[in-house]
Design goal:
Blueprint lengths: L8 H5 L21 H10 L14 E2 L11 H7 L10 H13 L4 E5 L2 H12 L5 E4 L4 H9 L3 E4 L20 H11 L7 E4 L12 H14 L3 E4 L3 H11 L8 H10 L3 E5 L10 E5 L2 H14 L10 H14 L2 H20 L12 E5 H4 L9 H13 L1 E2 L1 E3 L1 H4 L15 E5 L7 H16 L7 E5 L10 E4 L1
Helix pairs in contact: 2-15, 3-12, 4-12, 5-6, 5-11, 9-10, 13-17, 15-17
Bound molecules: ligand P70.
Ligand P70 binds next to helix 5 and helix 6.
Length: 470
């Protein structure tokens, strides 16, 4: 693949700018409510940002999942939906886009990422097997556990240190994988679960050298390597920027090379692929594919639509092509960085280096007087909403859940509040409003108290848990 890499004006002139490679054609009004109304809304939601109505939110940084703005091309593609039950034209477009840009042989559409996680976990894990991975992700680990697997975190130690400036904090520690193999034997490992720009670590990338070494390790032991490709485009941007030998390669080339070291991938297309709903699963091995293709009709739908409408598959196919454009990736990460650099300048503790899809406020340092079992990151999310109607997400002890064997809270080292930036949605002025709100909450930190959990659901408790102020 030879690509002409378009240079932004900033790159052409050696200036700092990263401006968006698009202009706005359609707008959606935002709603602002008063402090009293926000107080009532927060109480009604049990101080859980997942339980707020979006009408009560001003700037919504809960997630970058399904919240992107689609392009005029994608919207045009929606009108070309072929809603045939079987063999939709749009499925073949999607298949072609995944084969071209991610390089996998066999693909299945799913309703979203966790649909794909469910299928691969069921097929590739035998009860009692271990799944080493670069830090857990909530839905990924849950599906692995529900399939009888045991997740083992094998990310490098630096990933658990919000102040470490390691350029590839998403890397797997190969020594930890070797130890696991030495203790239990290669047959006890279901597969290695590798994620691009590790979400829970702060959107931290994996290097090409690391995946290459992992491939060699897997080949030595006959172990499969599967990729969570959800934010792999953003990971490719960091490789282009930071890894020796990749500055002259396009995002598309880097993505294809990286995926080429893996045996398959699951995808939440709601992120990198720029759609509001959708996902996919892709593998190279035919036998594995046959099993997955059979199982998908039980849980998702026929193998040429999974859980998606034809129009959604078309939007995904177009979104994939748009997402791998170099100027897109650069402005996407550039906007996240703009917000992060403002906060660093103002002395607010955040996870560094600044990641790909979000700014992660370090609630442990932010509220050093609030113990972890009083939910500092949840508290911070509540305070930000109360201050300015900004919705963020807890990524700390509430998200970590409980150890299924002991019933105790997991106490994760990272206690973070995530300001997640949707793609192509908010402006630089919105980032300024956000930074000012964070600063105000930071300045009031010493008089802030923690929370107690008063309702706790069994699965993925952070989504529906309720809290009260202490
Ligand atoms: C988020 C979203 C979803 C996700 C992911 C990675 C690395 C798989 C998935 C699942 C949505 C979310 C999910 C659970 C808790 C909070 C938020 N992440 N792998 O906001 O994909 O949502 O399509 O089923 O980040 O980070 P899907």
């Amino acid at each position: 693949m030879t690509h002409h890499i378009p240079q932004t004006m900033g790159q052409q002139h050696g200036r700092r700018s990263w401006a968006e490679p698009w202009k706005i054609k359609m707008v959606e009004p935002l709603r602002m409510i008063t402090r009293e109304e926000r107080q009532a809304a927060a109480e009604g939601a049990g101080y859980n940002t997942f339980l707020l109505r979006s009408d009560d939110v001003y700037i919504d940084l809960l997630t970058d999942s399904g919240t992107s703005a689609m392009s005029d091309r994608q919207w045009a593609g929606m009108m070309l939906g072929d809603e045939a039950y079987a063999g939709s034209r749009n499925f073949y477009h999607l298949e072609d886009a995944i084969q071209t840009y991610y390089g996998y042989r066999h693909i299945l559409p799913t309703h979203q990422g966790r649909g794909a996680e469910h299928l691969i976990s069921r097929v590739a894990i035998k009860p009692g097997q271990y799944i080493p991975g670069n830090m857990y992700f909530t839905t990924t680990r849950l599906h692995q556990e529900m399939a009888g697997g045991i997740f083992v975190d094998v990310i490098i130690d630096e990933a658990h240190d919000p102040e470490s400036l390691h350029p590839f904090k998403g890397n797997i520690d190969l020594g930890k994988v070797e130890d696991l193999i030495n203790t239990h034997g290669a047959a006890a490992i279901a597969y290695i679960s590798l994620a691009g720009t590790v979400n829970m670590a702060g959107g931290q990338p994996v290097s090409m050298a690391n995946v290459r070494d992992l491939r060699a390790l897997c080949d030595r032991h006959g172990i499969k390597l599967f990729l969570d490709a959800t934010r792999m485009v953003e990971n490719s941007f960091f490789i282009q920027e930071r890894e020796e030998g990749y500055a002259g390669k396009s995002i598309a080339e880097i993505l294809r090379e990286f995926c080429g070291y893996t045996d398959g991938a699951w995808m939440s297309a709601k992120k990198d692929n720029l759609v509001n709903i959708g996902g996919w699963l892709a593998v190279n091995d035919w036998d594995l594919f046959e099993e997955l293709r059979n199982l998908i009709v039980v849980f998702e739908g026929l193998h040429t639509y999974g859980g998606a409408a034809g129009r959604d598959m078309e939007a995904m196919a177009i979104g994939i092509v748009e997402s791998v454009q170099d100027d897109h990736a650069r402005s996407r990460v550039g906007q996240v960085r703009y917000l992060g650099e403002l906060l660093v300048e103002w002395g607010v503790p955040i996870v560094q280096p600044i990641g790909g899809h979000a700014i992660f406020l370090d609630a442990r340092r932010f509220y050093s007087h609030i113990p972890q079992n009083q939910f500092p990151a949840q508290t911070l999310a509540a305070e930000l909403y109360l201050d300015s109607g900004i919705r963020s997400m807890e990524r700390g002890i509430a998200s970590a859940g409980r150890d299924p064997h002991t019933g105790d809270h997991y106490y994760p080292k990272l206690e973070l509040t995530r300001l997640t930036i949707p793609r192509r949605v908010y402006t630089q002025a919105h980032m300024d409003v956000t930074a000012e709100a964070v600063k105000a909450v930071y300045d009031a930190r010493e008089t802030t108290h923690g929370l107690k959990m008063v309702y706790e659901p069994k699965y993925l408790r952070f989504f529906q848990a309720r809290f009260e102020r202490l």
